[in-house]
Amino acid sequence: MDFLFNPNVQFYLLAYFVGGIPFGLVLAKLFAGVNVKEGGSKSIGATNVLRVVKETNPALAKKLGIATLLLDALKGVVVLLIAKAFGMSEAAQWGVAVLAVAGHCFSPYLWFEGGKGIATGMGVMLVMLPLETLIALAVWGILAKTVRISSVSSLSGVLALLVASFFLHPEMAHAPVILIVVLLFYKHIPNIVRLVRGEEKRVV
Questions:
Q1: Which of 5, 132, 156, 178 is the most buried (most CB within 10 A)?
Q2: What is the distance between the alpha carbons of residues 187 and 189, in angstroms, rounded to a whole number?
């Protein structure tokens, strides 16, 4: 058990368990009295919080959706900033970033189920690759306003970030970025299937 005293391991565990906090589920139950895992896409993310809460309390839905988005993004950011403050290596920081996203996608508090990971992914990427993340957010924002299909705008933003990282930082090891992108796409497989079938719903 000596490995548990390794600072890197401690930060990896912290990232995973903090990343796994299901803020959307908690906020929706606490303030709207609904279980987001029983409605909509059954995801714990901001989009499903907005969709499910809107059915019973439209006035509250947007507030809870925004709160979920911010908290899901911040949980990765906070652990990363602490890791930076403790002087962790860049490689260790990338490990923290990957595990924060993995924690959200496969939450230890929900029997390893979880959300789609977009907000947490963008949060950690904003710390690690700020310029690429701003490009991704711009792509996401444009498509969110025009196409109005959450999965399309989210995944397009993720792809834009990945491509931008190769152009802006060709020298870096891209394995952690690719791993996060693969995680996000994996969690969106049901959405991708619905897109192919023409069944994916627009955000209204």
A1: 132
A2: 6
Cβ 79 vs Cβ 103: under 8 Å: no
d(CA 41, CA 49): 10
Extents of the domains making up the chain = 2-197
Amino acid making up residue 91: A
Residue type, 156: S
> In the chain, where does DSSP find H-type helix?
7-19, 23-27, 46-54, 58-85, 90-105, 118-128, 130-146, 150-168, 175-187, 189-197
Are 150 and 113 a contacting pair, CB within 8 Å? no
Angle at 97 between CA 108 and CA 139, to 5 degrees: 110
Q: What is the pLDDT of residues 46-101, one digit of tens each?
A: 888 888 888 888 888 889 999 999 999 999 899 999 999 999 999 999 999 999 99
185 token code pair: 């796409």
Residues 172/165, Cβ–Cβ less than 8 Å:
yes
Query: Has this prediction a pTM greater than 0.70?
Result: yes
